[in-house]
Amino acid sequence: MERARRLASRAILKRLVNETKQSSNGQMSCRSPVLYTPSRYVSSLSPFGSKYYSRSDLLGGRNVPNSFGSQQVRSISVEALKSSDTFPRRHNSATPEEQAKMAESCGFDSLDSLIDATVPKAIRIDSMKFSKFDEGLTESQMIEHMKMLESKNKIFKSFIGMGYYNTHVPPVILRNIMENPAWYTQYTPYQAEISQGRLESLLNFQTMITDLTGLPMSNASLLDEGTAAAEAMAMCNNILKGKKKTFIIANNCHPQTIDICKTRADGFDLKVVTADLKDIDYSSGDVCGVLVQYPGTEGEVLDYGEFIKNAHAHGVKVVMATDLLALTVLKPPGELGADIVVGSAQRFGVPMGYGGPHAAFLATSQEYKRMMPGRIIGVSVDSSGKPALRMAMQTREQHIRRDKATSNICTAQALLANMAAMYAVYHGPEGLKAIAQRVHGLAGVFASGLKKLGTVEVQGLPFFDTVKVTCADAHSIADAAYRSEINLRVLDAKTITVSFDETTTLEDVDKLFKVFSGGKPVSFTAASLASEVETAIPSGLERQSPYLTHSIFNMYHTEHELLRYIHRLQSKDLSLCHSMIPLGSCTMKLNATAEMMPVTWPGFTDIHPFAPQEQAQGYQEMFNNLGELLCTITGFDSFSLQPNAGAAGEYAGLMVIRAYHMSRGDHHRNVCIIPVSAHGTNPASAAMCGMKIVSVGTDSKGNINIEELRKAAEANKDKLSALMVTYPSTHGVYEEGIDEICKIIHDNGGQVYMDGANMNAQVGLTSPGFIGADVCHLNLHKTFCIPHGGGGPGMGPIGVKKHLAPFLPSHPVVPTGGIPAPEKSDPLGTISAAPWGSALILPISYTYIAMMGSKGLTDASKIAILNANYMAKRLEKHYPVLFRGVNGTVAHEFIIDLRGFKNTAGIEPEDVAKRLMDYGFHAPTMSWPVPGTLMIEPTESESKV
């Protein structure tokens, strides 16, 4: 049998050689189809089914250089000596020859002719040029550059805490989820049939949260702990139908959480009051909710049982921010009576990464499930009666609720939630409890040792992992720690907190003793104290109830078993590893390996977001470079990197506009004009900023009705705050009147907010700033290659014109602002829990831009437009293409109309989507923005074939 296979292989190779001919340019091409791969093998791997492939098929129709030709090379050109690992040709998949043929098939003599006919002349820029990286670094140069930046980051041992802790990322999870494109390139699980693996993992996440918090309902993750608390505050307001307008925050909450809630409260017309727990007063009768921290930001563990009963007696809902690791040994919030519980899953195997991305959570009772933000994964049954998973509740889907939504959240942190869930699966309930007991034990040993030293005073309240210390001079102790490459949290001149985590060792505790002894010899060791230390948790607060009892958390505790489980789930899903994901408006393109590599390097992963900035010089240099590059790309003057999702960017951009109007005394400017064709999050974001939405329609070609917009702007000129517009339009068209639209808004006292969702069709050809926008958010996870991770992470930085730069968000722990910094600063508040949002994934967009260079990025936009027009041309004889520009072309995406098939064949778009999935394809965006249609976006990184 083996001999027969070898003979067959030789016969195929012989036939392949015989059926190629030498062409005049020294290349070979196929005369006829060749049996290249056994058909049964093709069937098992390919969505195309069983077929005999030609060499031309497999190579996308390209001619291949003849490696066994006889031509001699007589001279060597300079071009031939240049580096071979240039990046744009790896990202932009269509070759120049293919580009010419595709443009010709669309009716144009060249790609540039197609672009000239597509992008309106009035908004075209001559060219885009970077002051840095204009030529683009090669992949090897980029990796060296990132190593240089990493070397500038100094990893000190962190005892800062405040919601961020070092953790051991199990290598099996690091390699097989975080670094695995089959997990990080998936899209949101809207198409459940090809998402069963990640849906199961997200259900594990929800189960983990509900078990540990003691509440029955959890969502499938939120952005970070601070914004999760803000979502809970909005829920409290919504539960009481907005009748009570005060929200109280206990001053034992993390400072970043308090500031985010204050910022968010402005738009809801809520009053936020911070108070000491003992001073909280509900006598006004106007309080809708109260937020407390458990354990507190300074480490204390309090029994909130009576506190919660008192709040409930006054009709006040209780939100509790908590720590998942602590809940393995502490009485859960649900048993204490909390109504809503929020927090971060970061310390469950997700690196600090200078602030994110990390999966937050929100859990509540069944009573409030329809008011929860985000997504809920549920168990259902399929058409044959078998168990199946789906997104059971999406109560905040903005394209349905629009300005009636109380949250604009439309994404999650699915990749990080999956990592945290797998961490819980790997360790199981006993393993997690052992980690928690060890962390608590180390904190206890430290507290015991300080008492022995007698030079400082240890807080008498119970604690879990954080010890509060009163001393004569906190700063001198912190300076001594700094010299030993240790970071402590200084609360004031006489108070320090020291937080322990999974990575802390007995040796670390001994180093701390040396620091706190002022360098004097210490007569004992941490190890010698261990046997004397008892738990600091009162018996009444020790956890008695079981958790993680489901078999899934009790089966996969060896690496071999977990590896198989991860791959079993992975095999049920579709990602960019398997197929094109042609989602209109979502830009699913190559997430190159060179871009992803730095994300797991220790110099980027192991830095606390509140570490002194001199320890993060590599990060700071990258932020400054990235800000400068994004300003050049967008035509803006300053950028904030803080918003850690596209919807968060929308909200931040509108809040900047709001702050600008307020600074001028225009408090009455609160009207936001939004076309009906806008992204669904737009009206929800405007509503969150306290704006009143005025809708304007579109004409028969899908463009904004300019005369209707003009009338709306003039009718509201005394109250006009902003216009929210997407460009190219959501219908996939470059609207000719966009510059006129911007002028109308400005003439009537408003600002133009541009949604950056479709920047993939702008970069290098035009820009928001050139068109006339004042502010724009960028979906770095769309245009700039951060992978979607099965529904997150994302990043949504905002760029602004000079007059808006002073109002960009800051942070209460590490002050931030615009990049480059404006001359003066009057920040709107805090948007995200970390100063620079999800800093760990910014290297992805940075390396993409730096390797592509200005020409590579411009070519990417051109090829994205070419690919969309090529597909539209191929499909137009079979399906109506709904919207086109004035010259009959589309932008980077297009909409085909399937409504006719309902009458002629009883076929709905959902039937087409499911049939595509049967053949291993991810279906395009279905029934949005026009019901009964499919919106298709091929992107530039998909090849012609």
Automatic annotation (TrEMBL):
Glycine dehydrogenase C-terminal domain span: 860-944
Gene3D superfamilies in UniProt: Aspartate Aminotransferase, domain 1, Type I PLP-dependent aspartate aminotransferase-like (Major domain)
Cited Pfam families: GcvP2_C (PF21478), GDC-P (PF02347)
Catalyzed reactions: N(6)-[(R)-lipoyl]-L-lysyl-[glycine-cleavage complex H protein] + glycine + H(+) = N(6)-[(R)-S(8)-aminomethyldihydrolipoyl]-L-lysyl-[glycine-cleavage complex H protein] + CO2
GO cellular component: apoplast; chloroplast envelope; glycine cleavage complex; mitochondrion
Cofactor: pyridoxal 5'-phosphate
Documented EC number(s): 1.4.4.2
Main location: mitochondrion
Subcellular location(s) of the protein: Mitochondrion
Keyword field: Mitochondrion, Oxidoreductase, Pyridoxal phosphate, Transit peptide
InterPro entries: GcvP, GDC-P_C, GDC-P_N, GDC_P, PyrdxlP-dep_Trfase, PyrdxlP-dep_Trfase_major, PyrdxlP-dep_Trfase_small
Membrane-spanning residues: none
Residue list for modification N6-(pyridoxal phosphate)lysine: 782
GO BP term, example: glycine decarboxylation via glycine cleavage system
GO molecular function terms noted in the UniProt entry: glycine binding; glycine dehydrogenase (decarboxylating) activity; pyridoxal phosphate binding
Domain named Glycine cleavage system P-protein N-terminal: residues: 90-516, 528-809
Family from the record: Belongs to the GcvP family.
Complex formation: Homodimer. The glycine cleavage system is composed of four proteins: P, T, L and H.
Job of this protein: The glycine cleavage system catalyzes the degradation of glycine.
Protein name: Glycine cleavage system P protein
Organism: Gossypium raimondii (Peruvian cotton)
Organism phylogeny: Eukaryota, Viridiplantae, Streptophyta, Embryophyta, Tracheophyta
